[in-house]
Every structure is written in structure tokens, then in C-alpha cells.
């Protein structure tokens, strides 16, 4: 134990990197075997109604097709914990794209051809798929996503707003967005001796196991779900998706291994999306820019299958000091696919509106946008009154302004040009809560001096294996090369979902606890270790259940420089800078990757990405990567991420905060604010495409 541990924060290369680039890392759709059947979903072709007939004769005549599952012959499920998993159980069609049949064949090509040969007849009903600010079906739910109260009030925001000498009253709209991870959703299911094993593209295989066990009426110990390598998720794989249930049902029905991989064009209607929002923000301030009133009201949609409410007004509850505040969420249940999590749910969409409104206020007052934010820094969390465990937003703004050269700019809009390009700069703040979920881990010491850590974490591209090895090595006092990490199987000690920027904190706390306990056991042990070694397990049930007396959040500042083509309306981002206060950074290499990845996703949110709902057919028109435009390298020539040293003892043993999502939170607003500075035109609808800008250009 005399060797120096691998220091936390060091840029350790991710452990699975070579496996991924050489192709030896196996994903969910790469666990097939001889005799495996391949599934292909038949999606509903109407937006609302019922299936009256399914004719499968032509499909069964396709060479290689074995069978077709429908609501008439599919295995019966118990009531699942998520209604979107109740597939092929009845004739109801809640939205276009809902699975109404599953073709099983000897090859993917035969399955696809068979699915195209299935004939479905429907009795349709009228559908309603378009969200509007005054939709008659809007109602106030009890809770928004994350368990947040739908409505929060302090003081009298309306009266204070009316009395404020300077007021901003603006409405911002966003269309739906889709996650589109590189690896589409896939599951490979196999039954053997009454035990179900599923290789699933998921952000949490323990959660998938529990859901499958409930839906299939099994004890949890009869189900194993493996998610060893996952090609991205961004929230869309945060809960079990229908393909896992369908593959498991089909494998039970046929007695064979079944693989079901969703084609990308089906993902828009099956695996969730960021719901569109209409957001009204009202800010009242005195002539020095000190806020007296903050109101943030959200209208969004959910499906008729289940309620999901994007918690977009929640960030306004903690960002800025104001004696009067009102935040409210309203939602309309429409005939649309069920919305779900997408990277930084709530914060990404809500902070776009809030930070755009703050920029509008700065312009109205003639105050620098950075200075305006600094003047409204709260001493305690406005919503709860709790002290912040740490809040270094001001430091992020100041350091970002220095690095970006912010104060060198001319604050007047539409004054900088570079040939046909109009140049502008913008700034926005970012925040994301610190979350901790219950997890468990085991730590094993072998007689040969090696250590093995087991925790059902999921690596969705973040480098979780590497960081967890660093945490364990630090606690054990050994080089990280002596530590092996086992993750990605529900047979391991249960880990929480890789979501909410909580994975590393949740799994890492359990790993640190188990490794520390093992260190104590080894210190007490005399003589050589027994042949079987020594194993210690630990969980964080107590830590996760304990309510902190502190408000715990990460913060950041985003700065953007854009160029707008005065002839075409095209927007090009020339520079993006993010500076973050996210506790202790555990691996500088993987952290920078996470920050930059979030900023690129925020760039897409601002300029290229949107999912348009077709009111006639009731489906999203952008259903592939040819029409849903994600940013590419040419769209992001200069992106830099930095962080400040932050020592926060009120978080977890590592002193870390989540970093996977805060990079996206303020980016879209910073870009939008920069476009306004470049052109003088304030656009309030994302994405900022050329057709929206052209009417405002000279």
C-alpha cells in the first residue's frame, strides 16, 4: 500500500477507448447467436383510434418470416410501472408510431419486408397534436418532472411587476427536440431455464431489470439486464423503452433469442423527446437593474399515455435575488408520443428563456449583461432560503469575461462587420442541481495485490469506468492500474441511472465508501490474505435519503461570438467559451469532453435542431439525421471549456458536482443574445434559422 495513488483530477485516458475504436466493445445489438430471430415493429399509421383488423398472411408468406405478434396473440403482461411499456396488449392507438405488431424473422431484411407486408385497418378518431399558448386543454398539474411543485409563489409578483419602472414581458417558444444518440435503441433477449437475459441499450440496467420483472410477472432474480457499452443516451435511454419489452415477449413466445434494434426513423415516436414549450417571462427591475419581480410561466405538452411535465420554470426559482416571484407549469395532454428526458431537462429550455429575458432587460437599461447578473446575485437560494453549499457564478462570469475579452466589445448592436457578416457577442448563465441517488458497490482485495470494484454503473460515453477507478484508487491508496472496474450488469450491486448529472456522484460515493471500508479491513488483517480474498460491500441509502441543509447546484457562464450573413441569414458560431463551477473535477480529460459535448448540443438547440409536429398526420416530420440537423465539426470551430477551483465540503466524499448537462444549459441563450447583438433583431423562437432572420436584415 506504499505506492502513490492516481490523483483525482488527472487526465487519465478512458479505459474502454481502445475497445471502442477497434470494434471489440460489444453493444446491445451485437450479442446475437446462431438461430437468433430479428424483430421489426409495425408502427401505427394513424394519430388516434383503434386497430380493427391486422392481416398477416402476406407477411407470413415472406421467406424467412417466422411469426407476427399482435395484440391478439402476444404474451399478456402484468401492469407495467410505465404505461409506454404496455405494448401489444390492446387495440388502442394513442399516437402515430405506437407499435401495433412485431414481425419476427430469420434476418433483419426479412423482418423489415414482413413488416411492410402487414396490413392494418383502423377506426380513427380526431386528433389534437399542436401545442399553443392558449390551448383549451391546458391544466396545472400537481408536480413537474423531478417532483418539483408545479407552482411556486413568493410575495406578489404581479403587483411588483406592475409597479416596476423597467419591465420586460416576453414569450419564448421552442419546438420539440429529439435526443438521437449514435447507437439507436436496441435489445437482445434470451430465455434459458426460466431465466431472462437482456442486452439492452440503456442508461440503467437495474431499472430495466425491475421494469421487465414487473411487466413479465417474474422475480427480479430471474432477470439479468446487461448494458456494458452504450453508444449515448442523453436521457432517451434513462428509462426502459418498448423494444426491451417487445424483445423479451418475443423471446418467450418463440423460445429463441430475439434481437430488436429500432431504425432511426422510428425513434421519434417511441423513445421520448424534449417537449415543445411556450414560456412567458416577466422581469421587473429598478433603474439600477435590481430585480423586484420574476415570473416564469410554462406551457408544454404531454401524451395521453402518461403525464410528463418539463420542469422549465424551476431554474428561475434559484437563479436571481428578487423579493417577489411566481413560477408556474401548465400542460396539455395531446395525441403525441410521450415526452421524456433530454439532456438537462427543465434547465436547458427554461434557462434559454430566462437568460434571454435577462439580456433584454440589460439592453433596456443600458447595463452590461454581465454586470446585470452580478447585481442580482442572491445571498441564499431564493426559493428555499437555504444557504448555498457553494455558489461561484460570479467567479465564472468574471473569469469568462476575462478569457473571452468581453469588455473589449462595443455594446451597441449591429455595429461590427466583416465583409457581408454581422458580428456579435452574447453571454448567459447556467445552473444545474446537484443530485445523489441510492447506489451500492463492492470492493474486493485479491491475494496478488489486485483490487476489483463492482457497481452497476452505466458508461454512456462519459468515461465512468475510468473515473470510478480513480475514485477507488484514491480511497485505497494504490495506483489506478491495480483496480479493475466491473459495471453494466444488473447482477452487480445496484447502481442508479446514468442521468441527471448524478451518476459519478451516486456511484462514486458508494465506491468510495466500499473502498474506504476495505482499506480499514485490510489494515486490521494480519498475515497473507485468504485465497478467496476479502470483499466489502456498501450502499448509500442513508446518504441519498438525508436532506441537505444546503442548496447544492453547479453554475457556469457561457460566452458566444457569432457571425450572421447579411445576405442569407445564416448564423455561424465563431467562438464558444464555457467557464464552470462544478466542485472538484475528477478527471480533467473526460470533464472537458463532457463540457464541450454539452455546448455543442446547445449550439444545435440554438441553430439547427427541431422536431416539427405535422398537424395533419400527427407525427414529427424530422425523423432521420438527414432532416434533423445535429451540429458537425464545421459548425463549432473554436469551443473552449474551463473551470474554477471549487472546494465544496457539503456534497460527497469526492467534492464533485455533475458536469454532463450544465454545458448545454446556457449555450442557446448566449448564442441567441449574440445574434441580437450582431443584428439588432431579437428573435424569440428556436432554432434561429435563416428564414426567421432574413426579414430583419438590411
Structure description:
It is a single chain. With 698 residues, the protein is an alpha+beta fold. It is built from 17 helices and 27 strands. The strands form six sheets. The protein has a seven-stranded mixed β-sheet with strand order 3-5-1-14-11-12-13, with helices on both faces. Strands 9-17-16-15-10-27 form a six-stranded mixed β-sheet, with helices on both faces. A hairpin with a 5-residue loop joins strand 24 (553-565) and strand 25 (571-581). It starts with 16 loop residues before the first helix and ends in a 5-residue tail after the last helix.
- Shape designation: globular
Number of helices: 17
Going across the biggest sheet, name each strand in turn: 3-5-1-14-11-12-13
Q: Which regions have little confidence, pLDDT < 50, spanning 5+ residues?
A: 1-5
Please give the radius of gyration in angstroms.
26 Å
Mean pLDDT over the full residue set: 97
How big a fraction of the residues is strand? 15-25%
Approximate helicity band: 25-40%
Number of DSSP-assigned strands? 27
Computed structural class: alpha+beta
Biggest beta sheet summary: 7 strands, mixed
Q: Termini, distance in Å? A: 70 Å
Write the layout of secondary structure elements.
Blueprint: H1 17-22, E1 37-43, E2 49-55, H2 57-60, E3 65-69, E4 92-93, E5 99-105, H3 108-116, E6 119-124, E7 143-144, E8 148-149, E9 151-154, H4 157-163, E10 166-174, E11 186-192, E12 195-200, H5 205-216, E13 223-226, H6 242-254, E14 258-261, H7 264-270, E15 277-285, E16 291-303, E17 324-334, H8 347-365, H9 369-375, H10 393-404, E18 416-418, E19 421-433, E20 440-445, E21 451-454, H11 464-476, E22 483-486, H12 503-524, E23 534-539, H13 541-545, E24 553-565, E25 571-581, H14 588-607, E26 639-643, H15 662-665, H16 667-679, E27 685-686, H17 690-693
Parallel strand pairs: 1-14, 10-27, 12-13, 16-17, 21-22, 25-26
Antiparallel strand pairs: 1-5, 2-4, 2-6, 3-5, 7-8, 9-17, 10-15, 11-12, 11-14, 15-16, 18-19, 19-24, 20-21, 20-23, 24-25
Helix pairs in contact: 5-6, 8-16, 11-12, 14-16
Amino acid at each position: 500500500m506504499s505506492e502513490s495513488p492516481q490523483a483525482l483530477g488527472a487526465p487519465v485516458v478512458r479505459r474502454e477507448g481502445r475497445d471502442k475504436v477497434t470494434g471489440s466493445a460489444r453493444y446491445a445489438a451485437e450479442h446475437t447467436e446462431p438461430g437468433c430471430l430479428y424483430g421489426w415493429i409495425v408502427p401505427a399509421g394513424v394519430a388516434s383510434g383503434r386497430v380493427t383488423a391486422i392481416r398477416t398472411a402476406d407477411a407470413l408468406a415472406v421467406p424467412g418470416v417466422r411469426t407476427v405478434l399482435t395484440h391478439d396473440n402476444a404474451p399478456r403482461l402484468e401492469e407495467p410501472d410505465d404505461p409506454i411499456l404496455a405494448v401489444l396488449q390492446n387495440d388502442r392507438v394513442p399516437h402515430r408510431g405506437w407499435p401495433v405488431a412485431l414481425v419476427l424473422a430469420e434476418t433483419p431484411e426479412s423482418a423489415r419486408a414482413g413488416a411492410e407486408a402487414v396490413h392494418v385497418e383502423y377506426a380513427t378518431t380526431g386528433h389534437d397534436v399542436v401545442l399553443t399558448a392558449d390551448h383549451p386543454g391546458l391544466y396545472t398539474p400537481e408536480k413537474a418532472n423531478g417532483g418539483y411543485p408545479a407552482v411556486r409563489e413568493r410575495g406578489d409578483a404581479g403587483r411588483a411587476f406592475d409597479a416596476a419602472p423597467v419591465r420586460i414581458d416576453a414569450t419564448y417558444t421552442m419546438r420539440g427536440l429529439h435526443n438521437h444518440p449514435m447507437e439507436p435503441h436496441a435489445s437482445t433477449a434470451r430465455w434459458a431455464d426460466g431465466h431472462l437475459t437482456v442486452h439492452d441499450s440503456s442508461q440503467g440496467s437495474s431499472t430495466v431489470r425491475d421494469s421487465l420483472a414487473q411487466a413479465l410477472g417474474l422475480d427480479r432474480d430471474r432477470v439479468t439486464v446487461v448494458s456494458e457499452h452504450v453508444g449515448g443516451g442523453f436521457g432517451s435511454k434513462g428509462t426502459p423503452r418498448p423494444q426491451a419489452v417487445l424483445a423479451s415477449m418475443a423471446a418467450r413466445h418463440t423460445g429463441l433469442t430475439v434481437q430488436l434494434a429500432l431504425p432511426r426513423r422510428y425513434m421519434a415516436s417511441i423513445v421520448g423527446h424534449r417537449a415543445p414549450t411556450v414560456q412567458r417571462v416577466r422581469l421587473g427591475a429598478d433603474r439600477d437593474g435590481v430585480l423586484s419581480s420574476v415570473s416564469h410561466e410554462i406551457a408544454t405538452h404531454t401524451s395521453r399515455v402518461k403525464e410528463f411535465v418539463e420542469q422549465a420554470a424551476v431554474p428561475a426559482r434559484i437563479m436571481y435575488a428578487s423579493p417577489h416571484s411566481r413560477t408556474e407549469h401548465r400542460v396539455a395532454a395531446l395525441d403525441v408520443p410521450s415526452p421524456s428526458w433530454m439532456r438537462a431537462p427543465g434547465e436547458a429550455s427554461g434557462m434559454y428563456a430566462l437568460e434571454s429575458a435577462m439580456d433584454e432587460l440589460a439592453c433596456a437599461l443600458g447595463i452590461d449583461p454581465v454586470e446585470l447578473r452580478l447585481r442580482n446575485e442572491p445571498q441564499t437560494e431564493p426559493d428555499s432560503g437555504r444557504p448555498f453549499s457553494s455558489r461561484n457564478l460570479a467567479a465564472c462570469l468574471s473569469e469568462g469575461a476575462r478569457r473571452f475579452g468581453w469588455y473589449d466589445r462595443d455594446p451597441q448592436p449591429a455595429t461590427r462587420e466583416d465583409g457581408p457578416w454581422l458580428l456579435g457577442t452574447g453571454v448567459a448563465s447556467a445552473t444545474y442541481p446537484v443530485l445523489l441517488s441510492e447506489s451500492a458497490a463492492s470492493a474486493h482485495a485479491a491475494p496478488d495485490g489486485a483490487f476489483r470494484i463492482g457497481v452497476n454503473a452505466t458508461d454512456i460515453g462519459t468515461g465512468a469506468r475510468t473515473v470510478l477507478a480513480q475514485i477507488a484508487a484514491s480511497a485505497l491508496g494504490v495506483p489506478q492500474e491495480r483496480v479493475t472496474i466491473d459495471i453494466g450488469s444488473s447482477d452487480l450491486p445496484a447502481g442508479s441511472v446514468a442521468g441527471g448529472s448524478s451518476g459519478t456522484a451516486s456511484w462514486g460515493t458508494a465506491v468510495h465508501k466500499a473502498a474506504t471500508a476495505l482499506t480499514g479491513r485490510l489494515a486490521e488483517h494480519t498475515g497473507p490474505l485468504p485465497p478467496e480474498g476479502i470483499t466489502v460491500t456498501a450502499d448509500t441509502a442513508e446518504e441519498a435519503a438525508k436532506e441537505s441543509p444546503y442548496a447544492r447546484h453547479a453554475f457556469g457562464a457561457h460566452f458566444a461570438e457569432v457571425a450572421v450573413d447579411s445576405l442569407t441569414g445564416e448564423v455561424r458560431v465563431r467562438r464558444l467559451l464555457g467557464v464552470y463551477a462544478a466542485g472538484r473535477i475528477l478527471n480533467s480529460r473526460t470533464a472537458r469532453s463532457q463540457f464541450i459535448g454539452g455546448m455543442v448540443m446547445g449550439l444545435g438547440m440554438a441553430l439547427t435542431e427541431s422536431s416539427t409536429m405535422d398537424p395533419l398526420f400527427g407525427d414529427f416530420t424530422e425523423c432521420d439525421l438527414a432532416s434533423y440537423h445535429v451540429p458537425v465539426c464545421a459548425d463549432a470551430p473554436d469551443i473552449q471549456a474551463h473551470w474554477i477551483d471549487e472546494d465544496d465540503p457539503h456534497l460527497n466524499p469526492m467534492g464533485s458536482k455533475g458536469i454532463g448537462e450544465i454545458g448545454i444549459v446556457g449555450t442557446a441563450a448566449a448564442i441567441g443574445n449574440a445574434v441580437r447583438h450582431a443584428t439588432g433583431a431579437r428573435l424569440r423562437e428556436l432554432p434561429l434559422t435563416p428564414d426567421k432572420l432574413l426579414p430583419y436584415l438590411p
